[in-house]
């Protein structure tokens, strides 16, 4: 029997498939069986682009989509519901990650452009000062060259000395002015390069923002299509039947997967006394409500077999994050993405016992790590869930699924 805290809300309809009444199911994913798209653990920090040389390409043309029409072509009873959902989820995930990267780039470009603009304005002011000074010197040089220096030599008793002195002085001034003109030319060339650089950075920011705008529109369409898939499976029996049939086939995939993991586990691992703790295992989330039980469920007159249970918290924490906990000591045998289950953690409890935790939003453990009872494995989410945030949990012995309920305290 489930604990008292569970029974108060167990098998409440919630408008979803359940054991005795409509309850929660897992949302479908993609392709055919298991697809690993990453452990969900720590990721390497992406390399930041060099803003000194970066040239952002023009945004790709936005091809208009009509989600309401597109999804009806995608959702056909004879087609794979999981494949359709997988494509949508992967597209959305990719675009959301791209938007996150672009947002970070936009912030850098914005700050960089402001600093570059300030430097360019200071350079422009300096150039204007040099231009005015050069113009003044050129004008003076022109007047001095037109002075009757030779007349001084003919009319003045000291004409020759005066002539030589003036000639030397003019030569010195001319050389200084030529040097000033060369420096001005160099400054002007540097200013033109700085102007081109400022234009490049301005264009980079504008193109990045336009790309983000178009990407947000694509994400909005993805979300609209996702909602249409969920609505079809939840409300239309023919689509739910196709979905449930695909999900039942997942049992064979999971059975093969956990057997493979058990066979590959190191033989020197100390035995865990998992079987001896039956009836005393920790629950995978605190204060859980059972919204989908092990075994046969009936939804909209369609019967389907489930080898695991669906749990939601009776009360969601203020931060919205529900930790998913190990039900017993074990080793992290596998993390990744499983079609129909989303982000998954699989624990090896030795002696053929394996526990599975699915629909996670985040995974916080790595393969090979030893975990203790109650240790956090990740955060509950709705990756590949048609019915909102929840935890899907399975317990298997030698690959064969068992009802987890009798194992919990």
| CATH architecture label name of the largest domain | Orthogonal Bundle
Number of strands: 12
Chain-averaged pLDDT: 81
Proportion of residues in helical segments? 40-55%
In sequence order, what are the helices and strands, one letter per element? HHHHHHHEEEEEEEEEEEE
Structural class: alpha+beta
Our estimate of the beta-strand percent is 15-25%
Contiguous uncertain segments of 5+ residues: 1-43
Largest sheet: 10 strands, antiparallel
Give the overall silhouette: elongated
Number of helices: 7
Radius of gyration, taken over Cα atoms and rounded to an integer in Å = 36 Å
Termini separation comes to 9 Å
CATH hierarchy, class of the largest domain: Mainly Alpha
- Provide the number of structural domains: 2
CATH-defined fold name of the largest domain:
Helix Hairpins
Explain this structure to me?
By secondary structure, this protein is of the alpha+beta class. The protein has two domains: 191 residues, Glucose Permease (Domain IIA) (Distorted Sandwich); 202 residues, Helix Hairpins (Orthogonal Bundle). 46% of the residues lie in helices and 16% in strands. The strands form two sheets. Strands 1, 4, 5, 6, 7, 8, 9, 10, 11 and 12 form a ten-stranded antiparallel beta sheet that branches. It has a two-stranded antiparallel sheet with strand order 2-3. Strand 6 and strand 7 form a beta hairpin. The protein is elongated, with a radius of gyration of 36 Å. The N terminus is likely disordered.
């Amino acid at each position: 029997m489930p604990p008292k805290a569970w029974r108060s809300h167990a098998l409440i309809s919630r408008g979803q498939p359940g054991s005795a009444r409509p309850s929660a199911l897992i949302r479908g994913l993609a392709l055919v069986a298991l697809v690993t798209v990453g452990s969900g653990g720590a990721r390497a920090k992406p390399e930041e682009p060099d803003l000194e040389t970066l040239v952002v390409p023009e945004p790709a043309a936005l091809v208009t989509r009509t989600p309401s029409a597109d999804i009806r072509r995608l959702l056909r009873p004879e087609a794979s519901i999981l494949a359709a959902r997988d494509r949508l989820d992967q597209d959305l995930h990719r675009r959301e990650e791209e938007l996150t990267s672009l947002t970070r780039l936009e912030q850098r470009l914005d700050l960089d452009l402001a600093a570059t603009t300030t430097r360019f304005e200071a350079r422009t002011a300096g150039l204007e000062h040099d231009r005015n000074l050069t113009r003044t010197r050129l004008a003076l040089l022109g007047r001095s060259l037109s002075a009757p220096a030779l007349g001084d030599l003919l009319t003045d008793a000291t004409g020759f000395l005066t002539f030589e002195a003036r000639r030397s002085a003019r030569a010195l001034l001319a050389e200084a002015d030529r040097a000033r003109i060369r420096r001005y030319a160099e400054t002007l060339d540097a200013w033109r390069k700085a102007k081109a650089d400022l234009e490049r950075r301005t264009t980079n920011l504008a193109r990045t923002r336009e790309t983000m705008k178009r990407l947000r529109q694509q994400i909005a369409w993805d979300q609209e299509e996702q909602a249409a898939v969920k609505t079809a499976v939840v409300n239309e029996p023919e689509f739910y039947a196709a979905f449930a049939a695909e999900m039942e086939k997942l049992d064979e995939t999971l059975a093969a997967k956990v057997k493979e993991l058990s066979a590959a586990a190191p033989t020197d691992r100390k035995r865990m006394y998992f079987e001896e703790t039956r009836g005393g295992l920790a629950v995978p989330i605190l204060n859980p409500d059972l919204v989908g039980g092990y075994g046969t469920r009936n939804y909209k007159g369609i019967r389907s077999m489930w080898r695991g249970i669906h749990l939601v918290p009776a009360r969601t924490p203020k931060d919205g994050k529900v930790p998913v906990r190990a039900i017993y000591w074990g080793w992290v045998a596998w993390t990744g993405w499983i079609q129909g289950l989303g982000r998954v953690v699989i624990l090896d409890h030795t002696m053929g016992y394996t526990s599975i935790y699915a629909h996670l939003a985040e995974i916080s453990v790595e393969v090979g790590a030893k975990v203790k009872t109650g240790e956090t494995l990740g955060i509950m989410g709705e990756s590949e869930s048609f019915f909102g945030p929840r935890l899907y949990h399975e317990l298997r012995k030698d690959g064969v699924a068992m009802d987890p309920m009798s194992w919990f305290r």
